[in-house]
Amino acid sequence: MKYVLIADDNKDITDILKVYVRKEGYEPLVAKNGIEAEHMFEDFSPIAVLLDVMMPIKDGYEVCKEIRKQSSVPIILITARGEDFDKIMGLDIGADDYIVKPFSPSEVMARLRAVLRRLQKPEDVKDAGNVIRISNLMVSLEEYSFSVDGKRVPLTKKEIETMWTLASNPNKVFTRDNLLDSLWGYDYYGDSRTVDSHIKRLRAKLDTVRHPDWSIKTIWGVGYKFEVNEDNK
């Protein structure tokens, strides 16, 4: 059984989302506060989380942070606050998408399908033997792993896909729109700030390891590139 966790203290919202989640072929789990949401996540290991920001006891931002410490499961934040600051904060702490109330249940399901599709490992990846090695870096789509000097660095699936996209094209500049389309898909509802927030989180993890021969560089006003020193091309 594949579960989708719905965390919201509004019964009207959870009742309608339960119906739509079942139509998608998943079993809904409902949590009415942040603590319940964390317990259900640990007990049932859902494939995705629909997470309200304003919840009793523990808010959605805190729950999102706790989930991200242990899992890269897709998280869609649901919020009544549509300000850019709130959206960017959600992305910065690891949410994959956000939606603002009031919303259409069909739109929530469309975003759920999109995020599951983006984060799903392709069935043919194992046979493709997709591995990149540059200097002390190794990124594998066969195992969905990333390592430096032979030691694994805990990246999310999206971060591994980002490293694969950039590292497979050394010194090529990708615009924010290029990365948004390649990694999130044409049906994504976000904007280029999603890419900036994502790269910021990825760089923070890369800064914990030694990588003098390569780095992710910002090309101001354009986008990003995986830069390799000339001696290591």
Radius of gyration equals: 18 Å
Q: Count of helical segments?
A: 9
Helix % is 40-55%
Q: Uncertain segments of ≥5 residues (pLDDT<50)?
A: 121-129
Q: How confident overall, as mean pLDDT? A: 83
Number of strands: 12
How large is the share of residues in beta strands? Answer: 15-25%
Strand order of the largest sheet: 2-1-3-4-5
How does the major sheet shape up?
5 strands, parallel
Distance between the termini: 47 Å
Principal-axis shape = elongated
Structural class: alpha/beta
Following the backbone from N to C, one meets helices and strands in this order, namely EHEHEHEHEHHEEEEHEHHEE
Defining key terms:
233 residues; alpha/beta; four-stranded antiparallel beta sheet; five-stranded parallel beta sheet; single chain
Summarize the structure in words.
With 233 residues, the chain is an alpha/beta fold. It has helices at residues 11-23, 34-44, 60-68, 84-92, 105-119, 125-128, 157-167, 176-184, 192-206; strands at 3-7, 27-31, 48-52, 75-79, 97-100, 131-134, 137-140, 145-148, 151-152, 173-175, 214-219, 223-228. It is built from 9 helices and 12 strands. It has a 5-stranded parallel β-sheet, with helices on both faces. Strand 3, helix 3 (60-68) and strand 4 form a beta-alpha-beta unit. Helix 2 (34-44) runs parallel beside helix 3. It is elongated and about 55 Å long. Mean pLDDT is 83; it is low at 121-129.
